[in-house]
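Lab notebook, bench 4. Still working through the backlog of constructs that have no structural model yet. Next entry is a single chain of 179 residues. Request: give me the C-alpha cells for it.
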Amino acid sequence: MVARNVTWLAVLVLACSAVVVGVLGEEFSALRFLSGVVLLAVVRRLRVPAPFEAVFSVVVTVAFWCDVGRWYQRVPELDTVVHFLLTGAGSVVAFFALLRGAGPELRQAAANTPRWTLTLLVGMAGTSAATLWELYEWVVEQVSPETMQVGYGDTVADLAVGVTGSLLAGALFAGSRRT
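Model written out:
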C-alpha cells in the first residue's frame, strides 16, 4: 500500500511543479511536468508490481526536476544514474504495458516463461523505451535548442546504461515473480 502511495505523491509533486513553473512564465517546463503527470497516471492503470511502480515514480519525478532544474549541467554524472534507474524501472512498466495490450494468452505465456527469457523480454522492452526517450531528447533539442545536452556520445552512453539497467531490472523482476 505504501508503494502505491508513492506514485500519488509523485503525481502531486509533478502537478504542483507544473503550476509553479507555469506561474513563473516557464510554459515549456510546465508542459514537461504535466507530461510526467500523464505518464504516472497511465502507469497506475497498468498494475505494475508496487516496488517497481514506486521506484519508477520517484525516478520520473527526479528526472523531470533534473531536466527542468538543469541539475544535469551541475552534476553531469547524474544523467547516467537517472538513465540507468529510469530505464531499469521503466522496463518493467513497459513490459506490463505490452502484456496489458496483448491479452490473456500472452499474459499466461509470460507467467510460464523461463526466468532467463523473461529477463531478456523485460530488457528488450526497456531498451525500446530508452530508444524512445532518446528520440524525445532529440525532439526537445530541435524545438528548444540548448535545452538538453544531447549528442552522439551522450545518446550512446545513455542507451548503454539503459540496456544495462533494463537487463538488471528484468533479472530482478524474473527472480521475484511467480504469479
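Notes after review: The chain has a mean pLDDT of 88. The two ends are 18 Å apart (CA to CA). Flag for follow-up if needed.
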